[in-house]
Amino acid sequence: MKKTAKEKRFDAKSLRFKLWAYFALFAIIILALLWFLQVFFLHHYYEAMKINETNKIAQTISMSYGSENFYDMLSNISASNDLYIQVEMLDGALVYSPSSGSDRPPTYMYFRELQTLKEEYLKSGRDSLSVMLSTPGTDYNTLAYVTTLGGQGTDAARLYIFSPLYPVESTLNILRHQLIYVSIISLLFALLFGIYLSVRVSGPLRRISKSAMKLAEGKFGTTFDGGSYTEIRDLADTLTYTSMELEKASNQQKDLMANVSHDLRTPLTMVKSYAEMIRDISGDNPAKRNEHLEVIISEADRLNVLVSDMLSLSRLQTGAMILEKSTFSMKKVAEETVKSFDILAEQEGYNILLSCPEDISVNGDESKIRQVLSNLLTNAVKYCGTDKTIIVVVEKHQGKMRCSVSDHGMGIAPDEIDHIWDRYYKSSTNHVRSTKGTGLGLSIVKEIVVLHGGTYGVDSTPGEGSTFWFEI
Ligand code: ADP
């Protein structure tokens, strides 16, 4: 599916845009929150903080009332917290005020406020009272706090705390200024970083998509580059693997076509030339004609074997072949298969020996297993050399049925041993053009054994012979 030029330029649904947009949005939300809290809530926050702080200080003072250096502590607290603290007895006698020997504002500074506060406190009948007072002539408020120290006894006293709330306006202005710069810089950063990130993430995906397009056009073997992110790299690796597999499959298909056409052409040419020979030369000579007809028939047989082998192999490989499983006696199968080679043994002097010490029952597709043994025997007959002795052994091996077919032929060269199970593989040294050789026999053996979940193999020494085996 080709994209239109417009879509390529800008796509609001693209990962690239979305990533960038989310990043920018995130920055904007954080900034907005910062602005909102600083500008609108600073007042309240400051006030609440002061009230909280004053309450805590009052608690500390209450607890240490009566202690030895109580008045030193009061001085310290008032100096370090910028508070005006006064303590007087319940009858109004002044016990402590900052005016006594410090540079704090004199007592009369809060004189009037103190009187009103006292009246309100007495009227309220509560343990403690805090009130917000506006200081006339100034633009700031004062938090006033009063409580009783030492219960109701004779040493009970009253504690007054005045905490000036300085105007936050000037602080706010500074903050606003700073926030403007912070906002601009962080937005810029967010935008740039968002762009960078989205390009980094979407870049490899775009490259993968381009490569996938190539793959779709039939360029198998295309490699995919996933960049540096693990997930995207994994995707790219998987796609590269798929692409390689497709290339292999496509090459195999080409090979198969070449092999099939080659294998079919040879017998067809023979049939054609012998038929022509009969028409032009030997038609009237019965002996010659029969000889030529024999060749035609055997080539037709060869074609028949080839085509049916090809069919069963392709069915096995595409999974179209379903195993018809049953439990059968392997001894019986081996005996019958060996028996079918009797004519050969009689006519051409082959010596086929079967050793089956015990009867072993096998669960599998009987006719397929028969075909496996028959293919191995056919090969042994073809490649057993002058010795003409073939030994078939059926035995139990590690809980499995093991069947082996040995011959004393010329064996298989070590460098060929891995290839003999491939389709259409025919050894360069061993190959004798027999009417039965298709190069498919061992591939069929392999597929059937694998389909049964079994194992197979060959032990071979060049010049001494080979033992082909399978276990189920
Ligand atoms: P073919 O129709 O050529 O026999 P196979 O797939 O059955 O095809 O065998 C593949 C190749 O394996 C043969 O061409 C031959 O070179 C080798 N081979 C198979 N069986 C034997 C054996 N018993 N001894 C030596 N070589 C063998």
Binned strand content: 15-25%
- The named CATH superfamily of the largest domain: Histidine kinase-like ATPase, C-terminal domain
How many domain modules? 4
- CATH C-level name of the largest domain: Alpha Beta
For the report, how would you describe the main beta sheet?
A: 5 strands, antiparallel
Residue-averaged pLDDT: 84
Work out the helicity level. 55-70%
- What is the CATH topology descriptor of the largest domain? Heat Shock Protein 90
How would you sum up the global shape? elongated
What is the spatial order of strands in the main beta sheet?
Answer: 2-1-5-4-3
Specify the structural class.
Answer: alpha+beta
Any overview of this molecule?
The chain is α+β, with helices and mostly antiparallel strands. The chain has four domains: 10-40 and 171-216; 42-167, PAS domain (Beta-Lactamase); 256-317, Helix Hairpins; 322-471, Histidine kinase-like ATPase, C-terminal domain (Heat Shock Protein 90, 2-Layer Sandwich), CATH 3.30.565.10. Helix content is 55%, strand content 17%. It has eleven helices and twelve strands. The protein has helices spanning 5-9, 15-64, 70-81, 111-124, 169-216, 230-280, 286-318, 330-340, 342-348, 366-383, 441-451, and strands spanning 84-89, 94-96, 128-134, 141-149, 157-165, 326-329, 351-355, 361-364, 389-397, 400-407, 455-461, 465-471. A five-stranded antiparallel sheet has the order 2-1-5-4-3, with helices on both faces. A five-stranded mixed sheet has the order 7-9-10-12-11, covered by helices on one side. Strand 11 (455-461) and strand 12 form a beta hairpin. The longest helix is centred in the middle third of the chain and has 51 residues, at 230-280. It is elongated. The protein starts with a helix and ends with a strand. The structure holds adenosine-5'-diphosphate. Residues 379-380, 382-383, 407, 409, 411-412, 420, 425-427, 430-431, 437-443, 466 line the site of adenosine-5'-diphosphate.
